[in-house]
Amino acid sequence: xxxxSKRYWKGVEELRNDATFxxxxxSEFANPDLSESSDDLEGxxxxxxxxxxxxxxxxGFGMAAVSLAACETPVHKAIPYINKPEFTFPSISDYYAxxxxxxxxxxxxxxxxxxxxxxxxxxxxxxxxxxxxxTPRVQASLLSLxxxxxxxxxxxxxxxxxxxxxxxxxxxxxxxxAGRGGAIRxxxxxxxxxxxxxxxxxxVAKYPTTRHITYDxxxxxxxxxxxxxxxxxxxxxxYDFSKAQTxxxxxxxxxxxxxxxxxxxxxYAQGRKIGAIGGGKKTMSRHYQFETGxxxxxxxxxxxxxxxxxxEGLVVAALYNKVxxxxxxxxxxxxxxxxxxxxxxxxxxxxxxxxxxxxxGSNDPNVQIVVNALNNLLGSxxxxxxxxxxxxxxxxxxxxxxxxxxxxxxxQIGAALFFASNPVYDHPRGAELAExxxxxxxxxxxxDRADETASLSKYITPAPHFLESWNDAEPKQGYYSLMQPxxxxxxxxxxxxxxxxxxxxxxxDYQTYLKNYxxxxxxxxATGFSSFDAFWVKCLNDGVFEPNAAPAVAGGATFxxxxxxxxxxxxxxxKPTTGMELALYExxxxxxxxxxxxxxxxxxxxxxxxxxxxxxxxxSQKTAGDMKLAQNDLVTVSVxxxxxxxxxLIQPGQADNTVSVAIGYGREKAGKSANGxxxxxxxxxxxxxGYATYSAFDAKxxxxxxxxxxxxxxxxxxVMGRKAVLQESILAQYQKSPKAGRYEPKVxxxxxxxxxxxxxxxxxxxxxxxxxxxxxxxxSCIGCGTCVVACNAENNIQVVGRKEVIRRRxxxxxxxxxxxxxxxxxxxxxxxxxxxxxxEVTFQPMLCQHCSNAPCETVCPVLATTHSTEGLNQxxxxxCIGTRYCANNCPYKVRxxxxxxxxxxxNFDYHFNNDLGKMVINPDVTVRSRGVIEKxxxxxxxxxxxxxxxxxERRRLGADxxxxxxxxxxxxxxxxxxxxxxxxxxISKVLAVELEGRAFHVLEEINVRPxxxxxxxxxxxxxxxKNKETxxxxxxx
Amino acid sequence: xxxxxxxxxxxxxxxxxxxxxxxxxxxxxLANAQVKAQxxxxxxxxxxxxxxxxxxxxxxxxxxxTNNCAQCHAVTxxxxxxxxxxxxxxxxxxxxxxxxxxxxxxxxIASGDQYANQVFNANGKVQMSSFPSLSxxxxxxxxxYIDQAGKPAVTADVAGAADTKNAGGTGGSxxxxxxxxxxxxxxxxxxxxxxxxxxxxxxxxxxILSKAVSxxxxxxxxxxxxTFSQRLKTGLSNTFNNPTLRSIVIWLFLLVAAKETIDGAYxxxxxxxxxxxxxxAYSHKxxxxxxxxDCNYCHTGAQKGKSATIxxxxxxxxxxxxxKKESPEIQKIYTAIEENRPIxxxxxxNLPDLAYFNHAQHVNVGNVACQTCxxxxxKMEVMEARxxxxxxxxxxxxxxxxxxxxDNAYYDKLVALHRKESKEPLKVANIGGLECSxxxx
Lengths: 1037, 441
Description:
Chain A is α/β, with parallel strands linked by helices. Chain A has 5 domains: 12-71, no CATH class; 155-214 and 396-476 and 479-545, Rossmann fold (3-Layer(aba) Sandwich); 222-391, Dimethylsulfoxide Reductase, domain 2, CATH 3.40.228; 604-712, Barwin-like endoglucanases, CATH 2.40.40; 728-851 and 938-1019, Alpha-Beta Plaits. Chain A contains 32 helices and 44 strands. A 7-stranded mixed sheet of chain A has the order 6-5-17-16-15-7-8, with helices on both faces. In chain A, helix 5 runs parallel beside helix 24. Chain A is globular, with a radius of gyration of 32 Å. The N and C termini of chain A lie far apart (99 Å). Among the domains of chain B are: 2-44 and 176-267; 56-162, Cytochrome c-like domain (Cytochrome Bc1 Complex, Chain D, domain 2, Orthogonal Bundle), CATH 1.10.760. In chain B, helix 1 packs parallel to helix 11 (243-267) and helix 2 crosses helix 7 (136-150). The radius of gyration of chain B is 33 Å and the shape is elongated. The N and C termini of chain B lie far apart (72 Å). The model of chain B is unreliable at 1-21, 28-56, 153-179 and 217-221 (pLDDT under 50). At the A-B interface, helix 4, strand 1 and helix 29 of A face helix 14, strand 1, helix 16 and helix 19 of B. Chain B: Residues 56-150 form the Cytochrome c domain. Chain B: This is C-type cytochrome. Chain B: It comes from Spirosoma validum.
């Protein structure tokens, strides 16, 4: 080599020896040409040309930046009151009795406020109407208070104006309309408040051309009219499900959406509680359900039959005929119908005469007249039905509303005022009204947002949320309730009543008006008060005033309806079809869609399908097979030339050749959370003979292109025969042995089979003082999900949205598992996975079981989850490093991981992304950040608070003093929480009996020793060997 | 020979390393000990006041006095808002009169009682609050307490007394330092000195040995350095070039730097000593120290709930409605009230959101003195965060503090259970006071 004279060059540059070559000749690793990248940092971080040193540089900078940022401690302000109210202390909750009232739905509530902001709604146990119960919507209504999409003040044509301007202009226009005799219409949903009706009357007195039109988005006008025809009373009676031994419901989802579930859930569950939790009784009601889609009510039925909407009237008529044959009534001439369980239902009804109840969800007065006749035959009036104490939950008049739309189209309306109503969206003829609305000279909406109707109205004079308002309510004749504000007005809103009073030229102070109304109307009914003020304060404190609450003897009634005529109507309308039929239904969370912009409700899964953030076309397995449709396939559903595209959800229990679609979705102008979620199914409803009809006998379902994934929180439908998870039996077996249906696993040891609890690796933890535990009665749990929303509110649980739910990343600490039964044989696991065509359903609330031998605790590498001396499995967020070993090792899958920072994150633009929405945060509970596991804490903040109260008062903790949010909110008291060390507590008393009876632990064989016991599900079914083939045929018939 | 000398040097380097490590270890220990001493001091102060002796009603009277009377009255003859109560029993017309007066002074004045009117007029016609809820026994208790507290032997400053008593047990005053930790530091320093001496001796030996070796190894022509300066120079350069020594220095530096970084990181978010300037130059020294106004008078939430609460302006007005109205600082309160704009105080004690702390649990149930955590507020001109509020600080106190179970039925079962197992007093840690979900949820 040394001698060679040859020259090698690496390229022509070297040969030429040009400047750049010389410059770079000695650098081994050429720097990337940064001028090519417009953003250096981006190139460094994101590009593939990242180099080690650059990486270190950036990392070093990042670390320095982070530590610098961390060093700079922000200055926190502490701002006291200027003038502190005497009995209010920061950090101590105040409770105000008030009233939830939304579109005719009612609940007496207690509002928990902290530093002047409501943070939780509880049921008011003083009320004998709602009896302390709540529903998901009642619980979630709190979040609607802090909805950022609400209007901040009055608007004219989309731009803000002052209230004074609005008042001046609207008053003068009203005067001119009234002056020329133009029609003024006030369109509302059901108004429960007598005082508000008095205000409307005052308004009418000032503007005599005014008429008040009431309609309900999910109307039961047919019942009202049928009662008018049957008893001469245009009312909805009170139903008492607790007194009924046999309940037959034809399409009435009375636990979820029919009239007033809040009033029916508790008594219904009362009738179905057995054993220690039911006061020792060993009998329960029997519930038959005939319906199209599998509703929550149907899921709770002992016998459920899937029928097509076109069979509904016929089923009622056939039931009438069969009962009449047994009890000696006259048969009516309707075509016969063959559906399963009809004879059985008729026999049970006839046997339970005087303790029977038949309800129907139909809005067809003919059907309801036959139902009335049937109830009359069964002696239900005066026992299970009290028509002399009517309820006011649904006052809508379909005919008047229909007439209004006709008038509007004809240009005969001078002024239209919309309060608590959104007919453009939720009326079957909404589209027609939308066209006519701009032609009405004066249109005013009192909506809190520029919704579908309000945005077409000339003025929006927003009314505040019910938690900011004064009002009263009369949900049931003679039962009164007061609404008082729990927060000062958030925005420049004004109550509807004040606006009407202002425009009617009266003093606009509605609080004074209300007080005076009560002084003249209710004070004379009260006894034992020295002054009106004393009475008023007492009513405000209690929240309710029930002068007639003494146990009234339910009034009987004389039936005077024309059954034959009704039967003829039924025979004419209900005819067998061969094609697809459509049934519209209301979900218990979203309801009619008025509260759709509520992320808690959107994320609450449907009790049965477990789907959230969407509505869908529910079809049966067989129909899906026939049409070659799979889950999530898009289909076009069309009725009367109107069509929408929806994803398919295969719903076990759905009647074949039917499709069920939920109303309440497809909002366009409700706000960020609701807009574009699902499709609006209201246009599918029709006005038939003056009554809104929520079904169609001639629907078309066609496969469309593409798919749309439905977010479901549970995708495994059956327990696949795992008796360790779900234990159930039938009533007859239970009456023989309280341990019926119990599965008691044994473990084989060298000494033979032993209980799994007899062998253990662990030493266990002492629970010397308290041992917090829970009993969940599977018989009482109806699956409504109120506990889930209550838990969301209490524990600051984040909303994650549809996409994250699809990725199985929902954050709910409490979930309600729904299990279908399967026809599969025990050996065939893939067949076991498939739910029956018409399955039995069991709801199982599932939350952290607070195992005494917790598998999660042993695997945590940083001791972020540990055990307490009170039986709690503790989760310490600030210690968690997010390995997720615990979630992996949890046999119940109740631990949730924060995949993202869900607050202050534009990708999760729900209430935690704005300051107003954050006002709902419970200040006692940490808001978890990204990268940590969270789970049910047994509401440890409530335990600690109650303990502290006891300590401050230097006494022992009361027996049932601590209540978790879920137990407190449960409308059927299916959840019993308490101290198992205190023999006086309800839980101890229940377990004392049921430990040798219905109580079981889920997955007992793994010996994790949960603090939660479940009570076996007992169905009131007849004891007969199941012949699955015949049952299946019956179901398909 | 060469190999032997290298070997020896190698052994020497082992020795160096060992010495270095020991020295470093000691330094680190010392640094740690200082931190711990601080914690211990805080912990020492955190121990509760031992129950004072005396009759039961005196004890109760003390509590009642603190909660109801101390805002306006001192047990000495000093006038606060109302007159000093020293010798009140002798002064008043009779025990019955005092009962009537305390329960409803305005009724007594209205009834035309001569002494009542005399007292009322003598004190600027400021009406005393009525205490109808106090029973006769309660009032006797209060009077008994005043009697006892007025005697010179007992210090009026209740909290101060508790502190001194407590600190007496550990030998020294609370905030400076605890006795055992001081001793510990001393021992460490002594050890360090000894170790340094040993190091020096070893170095001397090494030098001598290397000298003994050097003639052989440099015998091959290298000049022996003649002058002292040259020798020093060579010695120094040898020292600098010595790889062992260099690595020791580098390691030392790295370790100290790492230690500092970690300590610094632990300090993030700790605001011990934080004393921001407040919008109103309010002096606790004046109010709580000089005028001995009870903490609960203004911080009304401390007995009731999570937040001790910063007083609303209307509480200030209880006194400043008449007192020192002209002061520019107090005028700020007037302005705030007039403009209906609350005063934005700067929060001094900032606990992170992840920790739940409830004042009522500690102050009301636990009977912990405010000073235990907040330091001698009554001596602070500007409010300052005296405690670190770290979890170690909380836990430390929970380990040391006895549960205040006296007359509290809630704890009966726990006390009974504890007595069965142990003769030690019932500490907070014994009843789950170290469990995560007591503070984190």
